[in-house]
């Protein structure tokens, strides 16, 4: 039973991977925005770092580290959402579910694809940050893996929420694939600590796993110690949000199937 499911997951993945194998503009697009963002913020951080001395060096690391890690969440979220939208744009969603493919297999394929897209998009930016600004993100150590897992998981549950809205409202909700996670950036404490936010906004920020990840990153860069409390909160919140987003997706998927929306979506 597991082997047929894996074969169906791989089949859907291969359908998308084949597009990138034969299209260098698609591959270039994956790395374009992370690299451009890193260069802009890298120059900004270098400007302030040169004027603040040793304190500026720490601020430089916090800013550029935040930029690169936030791209992990952004690329993971867009990896799921864009791959799903490509099925809609190609009018392929109805054909996919004529096959024995199950909803969880679709989600699994999209999540694995998002990991591939994220790696292809973010790794060039990480390497260029080391080459251009002598900033090595990997100096954070093995805890970097835990940071990345939490940010990828956040991207997944945000994208499942977006996909659910697309299933409910059709093409009118497609713009959310690019905008939802950007709207959460001010509350994710990517470039500044949660304490900078107004007191009434801090509970909202602390309800997001990303805020705990970036608080943990700053603690690590400042003191060299791992904030395990923030790490535990990030994992716990991701589990909660991912469970809720998964339930919402299954409800909207069932509703869309009953309405016959898979055959008309994209028209």
Written overview of the protein:
The structure is a single chain. By secondary structure, this protein is mainly α. The chain has one domain (2-264). It is 79% helix and 0% strand. The chain is built from ten helices and no strands. The protein has helices at residues 2-21, 24-89, 93-96, 103-133, 143-169, 176-183, 202-206, 209-223, 228-259, 261-264. Helix 1 (2-21) packs across helix 4, helix 2 (24-89) runs antiparallel to helix 4 (103-133) and helix 5 runs antiparallel to helix 8. The chain is globular. The protein starts with a helix and ends with a helix.
End-to-end distance: 35 Å
Average residue pLDDT: 88
Radius of gyration, in Å, reads: 20 Å
Q: Uncertain regions: pLDDT < 50 for 5+ in a row?
A: none
Key terms:
single chain, 267 residues, mainly alpha, globular
Provide a compact summary of the structure:
The chain is an all-alpha fold and 267 residues long. The chain contains ten helices and no strands.
Topology readout:
Layout: H1 2-21, H2 24-89, H3 93-96, H4 103-133, H5 143-169, H6 176-183, H7 202-206, H8 209-223, H9 228-259, H10 261-264
């Amino acid at each position: 039973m597991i082997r047929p499911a894996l074969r169906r997951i791989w089949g859907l993945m291969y359908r998308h991977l084949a597009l990138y194998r034969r299209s260098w503009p698609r591959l270039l697009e994956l790395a374009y925005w992370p690299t451009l963002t890193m260069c802009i913020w890298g120059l900004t951080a270098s400007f302030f770092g040169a004027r603040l001395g040793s304190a500026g060096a720490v601020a430089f690391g916090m800013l550029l580290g935040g930029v690169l890690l936030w791209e992990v969440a952004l690329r993971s979220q867009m990896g799921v959402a864009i791959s799903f939208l490509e099925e809609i744009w190609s009018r392929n969603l109805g054909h996919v579910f004529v096959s024995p493919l199950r909803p969880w297999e679709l989600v699994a394929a999209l999540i694995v694809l998002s990991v591939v897209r994220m790696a292809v998009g973010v790794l060039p930016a990480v390497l260029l940050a080391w080459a251009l600004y002598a900033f090595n993100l990997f100096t954070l150590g093995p805890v970097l893996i835990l940071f990345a897992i939490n940010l990828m998981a956040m991207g997944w549950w945000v994208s499942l929420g977006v996909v659910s809205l697309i299933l409910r409202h059709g093409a009118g909700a497609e713009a959310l694939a690019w905008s939802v996670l950007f709207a959460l950036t001010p509350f994710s404490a990517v470039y500044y600590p949660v304490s900078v936010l107004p007191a009434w906004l801090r509970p909202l920020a602390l309800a997001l796993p990303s805020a705990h990840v970036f608080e943990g990153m700053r603690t690590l860069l400042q003191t060299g110690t791992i904030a395990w409390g923030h790490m535990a909160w990030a994992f716990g919140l991701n589990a909660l949000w991912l469970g809720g987003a998964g339930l919402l997706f299954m409800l909207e998927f069932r509703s869309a199937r009953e309405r016959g929306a898979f055959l008309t979506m994209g028209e």
